[in-house]
């Protein structure tokens, strides 16, 4: 029985599935490239008069809302088995960023002006351009080694930078929530329930402590699997044997 199962060929993805995945990933590359351009334009190309007339969030919010929230599609893709991503890890990655965009930046005036916003957007944009580009090229079996290397190397710096930006956004938002009790419900009320947005923000921030190391170490494991094994290791062993 085990031999028959192992001998069974893997089912290839259909053309429509491949076309859908390629289109989704390619559109995300375009979207995040535009966001990266907006960041560069806001800080380095446009003059100080432009920055004085509009905030970074007002300038980038439409693209960020559309393309960051479109990442929710990844949860569906992973859950349906259309991609090999871990559904649990994918869900946390997507929802944590959606929480930053919807539950922090869009929900509070302080989140919109947090110094963490440009940091997070920069890390997200570079990460997503590489990641979605890797996925799109992988579908058509045309992935240059440099793209593979970037996919499994740049996270070493970009993940901590992105998390720092996200936590700074949370910190700026919680200060506002503490003094204004925004999005909170206190008793007595018709629902006979209480909810504190301020405590929710702190709960999410504290969840980064156990969850971020797991995600970070998972990426290192993937890096070792993709870049650190196989032919590279065997070739180095062969070279060492020849020298002895």
Structural overview:
- The protein has 244 residues and is an all-alpha fold.
- It has one domain.
- The protein is built from twelve helices and no strands.
- It is globular, with a radius of gyration of 22 Å.
- Mean pLDDT is 88; it is low at 1-10 and 230-244.
Q: How many helical stretches?
A: 12
Main sheet: strands, sense, barrel: none
pLDDT average, as an integer? Answer: 88
Order of helices and strands: HHHHHHHHHHHH
Report the uncertain regions. Answer: 1-10, 230-244
Radius of gyration: 22 Å
Question: Helices and strands: which structural class?
Answer: mainly alpha
Q: Total domains, how many?
A: 1
Strand content: under 5%
Number of strands: 0
Overall geometry: globular
- Give the distance, in angstroms, between the N- and C-terminal Cα atoms: 46 Å
Q: What is the helical fraction, as a range of percent?
A: over 70%
Entry summary:
By secondary structure, the chain is mainly alpha-helical. 77% of the residues lie in helices and 0% in strands.
Secondary-structure blueprint:
Blueprint: H1 2-7, H2 15-45, H3 48-53, H4 56-69, H5 72-79, H6 87-105, H7 109-112, H8 116-139, H9 145-151, H10 155-180, H11 197-227, H12 231-243
Question: What are the key terms here?
Answer:
mainly alpha; 0% strand; disordered C terminus; 244 residues; 12 helices; disordered N terminus
């Amino acid at each position: 029985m085990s031999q028959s199962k192992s001998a069974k060929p893997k089912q290839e993805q259909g053309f429509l599935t491949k076309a859908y995945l390629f289109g989704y990933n390619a559109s995300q590359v375009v979207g995040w490239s535009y966001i990266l351009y907006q960041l560069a334009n806001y800080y380095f190309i446009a003059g100080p008069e432009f920055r004085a007339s509009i905030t970074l969030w007002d300038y980038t919010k439409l693209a960020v809302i559309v393309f960051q929230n479109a990442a929710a599609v990844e949860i569906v893709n992973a859950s349906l088995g259309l991609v090999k991503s871990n559904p649990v890890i994918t869900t946390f990655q997507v929802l944590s960023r959606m929480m930053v965009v919807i539950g922090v930046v869009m929900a509070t005036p302080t989140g919109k002006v947090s110094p963490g916003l440009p940091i997070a957007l920069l890390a997200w944009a570079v990460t997503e351009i590489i990641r979605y580009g890797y996925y799109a090229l992988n579908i058509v079996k045309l992935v240059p080694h440099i793209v593979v290397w970037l996919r499994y190397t740049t996270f070493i710096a970009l993940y901590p930078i992105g998390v720092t930006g996200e936590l700074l956004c949370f910190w700026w938002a919680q200060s506002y929530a503490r003094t204004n009790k925004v999005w909170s419900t206190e008793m007595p009320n018709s629902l006979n329930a209480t909810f504190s947005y301020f405590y929710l923000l702190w709960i999410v921030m504290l969840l980064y402590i156990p969850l971020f190391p797991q995600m970070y170490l998972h990426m290192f494991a993937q890096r070792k699997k993709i870049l650190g094994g196989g032919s590279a290791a065997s070739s180095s062993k062969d070279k060492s044997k020849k020298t002895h």
